[in-house]
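Amino Acid Chain and Its Fold in Token Form
===========================================
Scope: a single protein chain, as residues and as a discrete description of its fold.
Amino acid sequence: labelled as such and written in the usual single-letter residue code.
Position: the record begins directly beneath this header, with no further notes in between.
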Amino acid sequence: MTNQPLKAICLLSGGLDSATSAAIARERGFDVYALSFDYGQRHRKELESAERVAQAIGAAKHIVVRFSLREWGGSALTDDIAVPENRDEQEMSAAIPVTYVPARNTIFLSFALGWAETIGATHIFIGVNQLDYSGYPDCRQEFLDAFTATANLATKAGVEGQRFEIEAPLVQMSKADIIKEGVRLGVDYGLTWSCYSGSERPCGVCDSCILRAKGFQQAKMADPLL
């Protein structure tokens, strides 16, 4: 009997972190099943990047799930709310920013869990990290632990003894270390998109652009998008 390949669902936004997380899954021997979301975000350009990254890492399959969180808004990414600009790290960490999308990672991981159970995948990779993050509560290890418990309580597979693991390999890494790891793994960051703006070039002034620039600077590398 031949061994079945290990399968992992990898949440793939098209950004720097998710691309690195998926590359780590691939290095660990998983067949990557990439999952992206068109949820009404203002920066839908990231979906073009997600498609390119999925192809570059050799994903076994890439699905884009479409639904609209603009139905209720509540975020600068899904509503007519201005994206903060030119903030320093102290300002970013002072409060949960308006770019937080209500329950987004809970929603995304729920979709990933459904696909994982369907195809027999036991691992779900998500590229969150809580060191260089913008104050999002659903990027913390406490949240990931809670969702893991839920995944194993709320599914047929979990009840029957197949344990699901939510993998967040970047959760304790700085942005600079993430970039170094991605370069080691051959990630082409020129394919990725981090900016909250929907324009053709990175704005350079939103929180995500600022954190990305800091990461490349500290890693002593040039950002291939600039």
Residues 37 and 65 are 5 Å apart (CA to CA).
